[in-house]
Automatic annotation (TrEMBL):
It comes from Hibiscus sabdariffa. It comes from the Eukaryota. It catalyses: S-ubiquitinyl-[E2 ubiquitin-conjugating enzyme]-L-cysteine + [acceptor protein]-L-lysine = [E2 ubiquitin-conjugating enzyme]-L-cysteine + N(6)-ubiquitinyl-[acceptor protein]-L-lysine. Residues 55-129 form the U-box domain. Its EC number is 2.3.2.27. Pathway: Protein modification; protein ubiquitination. This is RING-type E3 ubiquitin transferase. Coiled coil: none annotated. Keywords: Repeat, TPR repeat, Transferase, Ubl conjugation pathway.
Amino acid sequence: MSSLEACETALREKHFLDDSQPEGFLDEASISHMKQLEVLRQVFRKAGEADTPGEVPDYLCCKITLDIFRDPVITPSGVTYERAVILDHLEKVGKFDPITREPLDQSQLVPNLAIKEAVQEYLDKHGWAYKVD
């Protein structure tokens, strides 16, 4: 049983125990009960929006892997990559930026703290976005 279903059941049981009106008549308690159920559904719908997978903004993703950043670094040309991915590229493919093709050495990579902070803020609201390998 989901949390929403459990809350709805609890509200119905409370309403049933509190209800002394004859069946078929809507009194203030019944109207209040229906409003409470609707508010409850709205709260769960709103809370669920952040948990619904969607598109991660491009600026929060590595240009090579397209995965959300974990340890972003920026090159002198201003392109941000995932550290492990760009280091692997520099070692196995060549010492150049894969997007700009400009010469690049790992000593030129600088942590991109602004993007790291933006990723953390995004993940705080959209926890589904971090795939655990």
